[in-house]
Design brief:
single chain; 290 residues; mainly alpha; MetI-like fold; 11 helices; elongated; disordered N terminus
Length: 290
Amino acid sequence: MSTGLTQRSGLTRRPGLGRVKAARAPLYAVCLGFVVLVVLAALLAPWLAPYDPNAVDLSAALAGPAPDHLLGVDAAGRDTLARLLLGARTSLLGPLGVVVFSTVAGVAVGIVAGWRGGWLDSVLSRSTELVFAFPGMLLAILIVSVYGEGLLAPVIALAIAYLPYVSRLTRSLVLAERERPYVSAYTVQGHSAWQICLRHVLPNIAPIVLAQSTINFGYALMDLAGLSFLGLGVPALTPDWGRMVFDGQTAIQHGYPLSAVLPCAFIVLTVVAFNVVGERWADRVARRTP
């Protein structure tokens, strides 16, 4: 067996690199499976939930797991399993809105800045730096304080906060794509800049942007859960994981932590799963990029 660096197919590889990748494969498979299960649970929640998530049964308040309530009941007498399932819909819908808005707007800004360059690039770059200087959570708190409770205001605020990350990534990718031979070839053939960007540049950079957006999804979920925990997200009666952690504080004080621990665990596991999946996709795209 050879030691040190070995050459295979023209690529330099370190010893043990294959073992490291093999060790990461089970973690990626578990995280991807968990993401799929959470998404399916959110989609099928109305049919899977055993009770109305807002149905109150004070006689069973703070009851532990039982055949009637598999995951117990919170301090208000509401079934924990039903609120977890219905809460998954709200907890995933908000981050999805953040990612969609920030990705669409960020890609548009990044393409314009990277392709046009000059003063337009400078103006757009300085504008995104100004957004960087303003914390996203603080922006969300300010908007919610003006427009009141609800999911729309925090989603818009966090989407604005996430936009610079996507635009900077897109700009750097577009600058690299501009130097590729196919761009000059299409330009000589008379294709306009917008045709080249939309038909060729955008499809080439899309996998990397989508991988980054998957990572952003996890962070957005955590931020929105934090806002709900502070009472600045969804209304009080709306099932949401962050709100469940807030409501579960009373149960913890009485020695029944399950109604707060379970949503907290789902938030952490979902964020970790999306980050692992997004980073794995980003690594795959990076290895395929010449």
